[in-house]
Amino acid sequence: MSFLPVEQQLTYIKKGLVELIQEDDLRDRLTAAAKEDRPLRVKAGFDPTAPDLHLGHTVLLRKLKHFQDLGHHVIFLIGDMTGLIGDPTGRNKTRPPMTRVEIEKNAETYKAQVFKILDPQRTEIRFNSEWLAPLQWEDTIRLCSRYTLARLLEREYFSMRLKAGVPISMHELLYPLAQGYDSVALKCDVEMGGTDQKLNLLVGRELQRDFEQPPQIVATVPLLEGLDGVEKMSKSLGNYIGVAEAPKDMFRKVMQISDDLMYRYYELLTDLQTDEIAALRLCVEKGERDPMDVKMELGRRLVADFHSETDATAAYDAFEREVRRGLEPDDTETVEMPEEAHSEKGIRLAKLMARTGLAESVADADRKIKAGAVEINGVICKDLVLNSASPLLVLRVGKKWKRVRVA
Fold first, then answer.
1. Which CATH architecture describes the domain 247-324?
2. Architecture of the domain spanning 334-405
3. Which of 56, 165, 224, 288 has its C-alpha lying 20 to 30 A from 16's C-alpha?
4. Which of 39, 7, 38 is CA-nearest to residue 23?
């Protein structure tokens, strides 16, 4: 196996990192790997606390892919045991425990989704139950003896809760030790994680030293802000874009982010270089490019990465047609006019909307009609009754469309 020169590898690895502990250690490890013709073992752990990965996770996955590009070995670790504990990092209360069934179901979806980015031929998928589940009580006591309570309580997310009088359960104190022991079991050279995981990653470095292993290099990546531009992307906060979402939905969610945030997404979610992103921003600021067009290009790139170029083009065209031009979607569902519409009385528009899914209920439909939010064939409609004498109806309520065919 031939590796790029060490300094070239370092430059590629450092792109987009927040912190590297320690760079000199990594340089030495890369040098030794080249001499021994041995790839580095690079690990990142993911607790399967939700069924889907989102774009926030892919910031880390992309950096793992960079190590693969350089010829190194990546371990995608699924924390099926640590998921049972619940990571207290950055939380002011304990995460509700998950069941084994939930974790196993989520883990299966992870295995399918990670290969949208990682090379399956150079990715090792492991579960930390392999080494954590067999530990006896005596083993756990010995592991706990290698780390002090004072060092754990120094951590901000524990000290803040202590000051606020928020309870800390004993099992939460075991989480950093369990994650650190993963690195010992896997003999990791490098462990990666978000900036909120830094202290947990350092525990692994310290435990490896206690187990007479070379301490791993710690590399942290930035946390991606969600659609709101404030909180980190999270499914529980509803500000996420899922890796497995339909192309059209993924594209439209990208279009919800602010113009300023889109440059952050370009930086963390694409392979565009820093100078290229700066040039894009400058063009927008000078009025040479429409920020909407730049954001649509971002949406196209991301959909192509997780689906295909064909899907990306279709999502782009659909947004242009339906949102920017306000035209009817190509895939608008056609339904039949209800039989009662053929009577002299006809059918109330609100009732038709509720039946076709354009409103949650008749009362909801009435509110939308009074607000002028309902269009029929492109015209705002406040007529309350429809009958079979009406032509083909194309109903629109916000982003929802339905065709009603008259027999």
1. Orthogonal Bundle (1.10)
2. Roll (3.10)
3. 288
4. 7
Helices (H) and strands (E) in the chain, counts: 18, 13
Report whether the peptide linkage leading into residue 256 is cis, meaning its omega lies within 30 degrees of zero.
no
Q: What is the mean pLDDT of residues 227-239?
A: 87
Tell me the pLDDT of the chain averaged across its residues: 85
Residue labelled with tokens 């990208």 = 254
CA distance 303 to 333: 24
Residues spanned by CATH 1.10.240.10 within the chain?
247-324
Which residues on adjacent β-strands are paired with residue 100?
A: none
pTM for the full predicted model: 0.74
CA 398/CA 401 separation, integer angstroms: 8
The token pair that represents 7 in the structure block = 């300094």
CATH number for the domain whose boundaries are 6-221: 3.40.50.620
Here the tokens at position 311 are 């899907």
CATH 3.40.50.620 location in the chain: 6-221
pLDDT digits over 93-104, tens only? 445 566 778 888
Give the tens place of pLDDT for each residue, 140-196: 999 888 888 887 777 777 888 888 888 887 877 888 899 999 999 999 999 999 998
Query: What is the C-alpha separation between 358 and 406, in angstroms, rounded?
Result: 18
Distance CA(76)–CA(65), nearest Å, equals 11
